[in-house]
Amino acid sequence: MKINKYSAVFCGLLLALGLVAQAQDTTYIWTGGAPGYSGTIVLDSPESSHGTLADIISIEIYTPRFGPLSMNLSSGSVFLTDPTFTWNPDHITEMFIAGLSTAPFGNIFVTENSGGGNDLSLRSLLYNQYDVDTLGSWDAESLIPAPDATGTFGLLGFVVVGMSVVSRRLCVHEA
Questions:
Q1: How distant is the alpha carbon of residue 26 from its chain centre?
Q2: Among 48, 49, 112, 167, which residue has the fewest nearby CB atoms (within 10 Å)?
Q3: Is the peptide bond between 68 and the residue preceding it cis, with omega within 30 degrees of 0?
Q4: Cβ–Cβ < 8 Å for 37, 62
Q5: Which of 39-43, 96-100, 170-174 is least confident?
Q6: Distance set, CA 41 to CA 38, 97, 132 (Å)
Q7: How far is Cα 38 from Cα 42, in angstroms, rounded to an integer?
């Protein structure tokens, strides 16, 4: 009976490892834009046809005039101005997100439209100035597995060795 108990624990660990290995965030970067502009948007999955604000992990942009800025996602001042928010493993296909930056500069706007009109911009509330790039698009940089495959397989190996030691000791004690 004790071997069945440990087998159940072992199977539960394998299931948990499989579920964790499937969780992936996807990073999209601003590519093909004007010199000096860059940005990253991290979303919680590699694709969605009905995205929400909850899918956004982080938004960071860099503009020549204002430097690096992050969107303050916890401020309650982030909006999907376009209700359509979609992406696939290759690029963001449709979005219009507006929100306050974490620094006191102003409003960040990031957009991607299948018919054109892509945008990475900042409007300074302090100086009433705009820093805008409409030449780029939001393309996938990479998939980031959590945890990495080496850690998952290393942990799996540790569990297998541990279970074999436990079952040998049980067999020795029962004999």
A1: 4
A2: 49
A3: no
A4: yes
A5: 170-174
A6: 11, 11, 17
A7: 14
